[in-house]
Design goal:
With 83 residues, the chain is mainly alpha-helical. It is 61% helix and 5% strand. The chain has a two-stranded antiparallel sheet with strand order 1-2.
């Protein structure tokens, strides 16, 4: 049972705590970008580039953490991201 909490973090070279912090930070950044989009939708002169900058930064971080592609049961390649 405990392995469900540690298998993935260990596979990407992190402890459970390290992984929880990293994934939480990604999630909070995505929430902030989403909120900026919602405000921008109502008030177009606000947050004109905030969401796109945050998403680009997160994408760059995620690309740097990319794991090799793996095969799914159906034979398709799936790119894993170490979040």
């Amino acid at each position: 049972m405990f392995a469900k909490f540690t298998d993935h973090p260990h596979a990407v070279g992190e402890t459970y705590a390290d992984h929880a912090v990293t994934a939480s930070n990604f999630g909070l950044e995505l929430i902030a970008a989403g909120l900026a989009c919602l405000v921008h939708a109502a008030l177009p002169w606000t947050f004109e580039t905030t969401a796109s900058r945050r998403v680009r930064r997160l994408h760059a971080q995620m690309e740097g953490r990319r794991m090799p592609a793996r095969q799914t049961a159906g034979g398709d390649d799936v790119l894993d991201f170490a979040i």
